[in-house]
Design brief:
Strand content: 15-25%
Strand order of the largest sheet: 2-3-5-6
Number of domains: 2
CATH topology of the largest domain: Outer membrane efflux proteins (OEP)
Shape: elongated
CATH class of the largest domain: Mainly Alpha
Largest sheet: 4 strands, antiparallel
Distance between the termini: 10 Å
CATH architecture of the largest domain: Up-down Bundle
Structural class: alpha+beta
Radius of gyration: 38 Å
Order of helices and strands: HEHHEEHHEHHHEHEHH
Number of strands: 6
Length: 443
């Protein structure tokens, strides 16, 4: 279901920005809420939940007797038999008939009880499906949101690098004019500046593409320019997080909504077998009928006819014993049994898949965390090397090639550090996703 508050918030932000501006600042939490409110699959599954709930309520309501009332009125021409007078007359008469009936299923091989359990389990399975879909939405949104954040940082690095190269070009131009540097350095540096301009253009295109993907996920107008901010997660907490693989296994088996969905589906299939098994047993029902009628040609008044003369009550028990119906009951039982066995197989396969996913996520998390530590050292070393080469070049004892290489190494290290940092943030999301611990905000 769409969240009206979030939609109004987006519209208010768009309407009240300055003329010509197309910016929408989204925090991570806001983006998550919008994605959950707008996702098509999630909204469809929530609608399906309404039907599943109605079916669950119906199975509970079927325990009570069914009650029906009917009233008929008609006009007849021709022979009419008047019971109270024991005579037949040929006339036009006005007639009325009313009845009340009630039927109660006393016993049907525990079919109703098993149907209630089946519908309850189906309702739980649908809820678990919704939870897992919500986690998938958050997982996808997190990937896209952090991709936009990374692309934004890489764009800033590219812009800063271009400014640095342009400043260096100006310095070299002054040195060349003073005769301290060969003119070839000026041309080489100009080529570097043009290359950085191209890299800046590519960074802008990458950011635009990532923003488009995020806008599609959020179901936003593609003309709206989205800007994101740091989620505010504690990187040091993630960096020094102590993980135990066996504990992660236990957490995943206890928390994964899709596994709980499969286990609930197992119950659904087991109870379906019990329901079909009830078709082989006798069923006992109780019934009660009350009826009365009125004819305007009788000498008795309407009250006497309805309450005394024509009143009829009937109640009793009905026993139904299945003998043979073309083996349909047996075929249905075999089908339900096969579905139940296949459901158990699917659950066991999912458990193995979950354990494998958790192991891979754990190993990837450890690798990415190690890569982040390496990126810190690389950036610090590249920064020091760039400062040394810049000083040497300014003193006239270093070459432009060495300075350019040092600058390239620094840009690569800075970009790699940003990539490693956001990869580490996303690896925590991946770990929570595969263990089922990814939190879902309340609507």
């Amino acid at each position: 279901m769409r969240n009206p508050f979030l939609i109004l918030l987006i519209l208010f932000s768009i309407i009240n920005r300055p003329a010509g501006a197309q910016d929408l600042d989204l925090s991570y939490d806001e983006a998550v809420k919008i994605a959950l409110a707008q996702n098509v699959s999630l909204r469809t599954q929530k609608n399906d939940l309404k039907l599943v709930k109605a079916q669950r309520d119906q199975s509970r309501g079927e325990v009570a007797p069914t009650i029906n009332a009917n009233i008929n009125g008609w006009r007849a021409s021709g022979n009419t038999f008047i019971e109270q007078e024991a005579r037949t007359i040929n006339t036009t008469s006005k007639n009325m008939y009313g009845g009340l009936s009630a039927n109660l299923n006393v016993f049907s091989g525990f079919q109703q009880m098993n149907m209630i359990k089946l519908r309850n389990a189906n309702f739980e399975a649908q809820n678990y499906m919704i939870d897992r879909t919500a986690q998938e939405v958050i997982f996808t949104l997190s990937d896209q949101y952090l991709s936009v954040l990374l692309a934004t940082e890489l764009l800033e690095i590219a812009e800063d690098n271009l400014k640095t190269q342009k400043l260096l070009h100006t310095q070299i131009e002054a040195m060349v004019e003073a005769g301290n540097r060969p003119r070839s350095d000026l041309y080489d540096q100009l080529a570097v500046v043009k290359n950085r301009e191209l890299l800046l253009l590519q960074a802008k295109n990458n950011l635009s593409n990532f923003k488009s993907n995020l806008a599609i996920t959020l179901q936003l107008d593609p003309t709206v320019e989205i800007s994101v901010s740091n989620p505010g997660w504690d990187l040091n907490e993630i960096r020094f997080l102590q993980l135990d693989l066996d504990e992660l296994y236990d957490v995943s088996l206890a928390n994964r909504p899709d596994l709980k969905q499969f286990e609930s589906t197992e119950v659904v299939m087991e109870k379906a077998v019990s329901v079909s098994k009830a078709n082989f047993s006798p069923s006992l029902g109780a019934y009660y009928n009350l009826s009365t009628r009125f004819n305007d040609q009788s000498v008795r008044d309407i009250q006497d006819q309805l309450t005394v003369d024509n009143k009829r009550t009937e109640y009793g028990l009905s026993l139904r014993i299945p003998i043979y119906n073309g083996l349909r009951n047996k075929t249905e039982y075999v089908m339900r049994k096969v579905n139940s066995e296949n459901s158990k197989i699917n659950t066991e396969n999912l458990k193995k898949t979950i354990l494998n996913d958790v192991r891979n996520a754990y190993q990837n998390f450890m690798d990415v965390r190690a890569a982040y530590e390496v990126s810190i050292a690389q950036q610090e070393a590249a920064d020091m090397a760039l400062k040394v080469q810049q000083e040497k070049y300014n003193l006239g004892v270093g070459s432009l090639i060495e300075l350019t290489n040092a600058n390239n190494n620094y840009v690569t290290a800075a970009s790699g550090h940003a990539q490693a940092r956001l990869n580490l943030l996303f690896q925590k999301v991946i770990m929570d996703y595969y263990t089922g611990a990814l939190s879902i905000p309340s609507p």
